[in-house]
Amino acid sequence: MSRQTPVLHPDWVKHAEPIEGVERIEAWFHGRAYAMHRHDTYAIGRTLAGVQSFSYRRSQRNSLPGNTLVLHPDEPHDGQAGTAEGFQYRMIYIEPAIFQEVLGGRALPFLEGGVTTDPRLAAATATLLQHVGYTLEPLEQSDALADVAHALAAVAGVPARRSKGDFLAARRARDYLQVNCARIVTLDELEAATGRDRWSLSHDFRTFYGTSPYRYLTMRRLDAVRRMLLAGTSLAHAAASAGFADQSHMTRHFSKTFGLTPGHWLQVAGGIQRG
């Protein structure tokens, strides 16, 4: 009996809308994907399926599903499938100037191997490496970029720089986010409300409140959702009223924060209150 040749799906690349110096793609390739080339940005990605092989700094690298790729600006590299099945991956392209603003003049982080399994980078890149159909809010992207920059610096061994921070600016940001949590808050308006640039403000907020501005905003939205659900509001209406893009967006954040879906949480919390 002859063995059937597997059916190969066509190669494809999907692009998200570029936002403030950050490009996001998701792609599937078989065989040779692209020849030697280089970017003037960081290329940071995650292999989703198959074996993603590439030449980088005079060696052949292989990235497996779940691995994080970090290609430094201006470093030549190519790309090809490591097996006949092909490979799928997501990638973000970040201008070095953005990391430099976050790191405040420290050396740009450099990872020699191009592929890492470090959990700090896996966690820090999770937000930016979501599917390209997901639209990031301005504060969400800013927080994620700061997370990636600091994680890269930590993994690369870049010395940390301590600063006291501006408590009044952090408090103004907290008050502003509290009042405006049910809508999208832009970075420009938060800078105007606090008198601090976005990266300094991100540092201030983490220093004095132990979390990032976007996570704080998300928690206030989730507080509102829980109040509305207990009052009998539907999931879809609660999500929209609290400022989430849709019900699935709210459910994802709710489950990640509380460890329960909104419906399950309501069953438990409603039962406790009635009891």
UniProtKB/TrEMBL annotation:
Span of domain HTH araC/xylS-type: 171-268
Any GO molecular function: DNA-binding transcription factor activity
Domain of life of the organism encoding this protein: Bacteria
InterPro entries in the record: AraC-bd, AraC_XylS_family_regulators, Homeodomain-like_sf, HTH-like, HTH_AraC
Keywords of this entry: DNA-binding, Transcription, Transcription regulation
Full protein name: HTH araC/xylS-type domain-containing protein
Species this chain originates from: Paraburkholderia fynbosensis
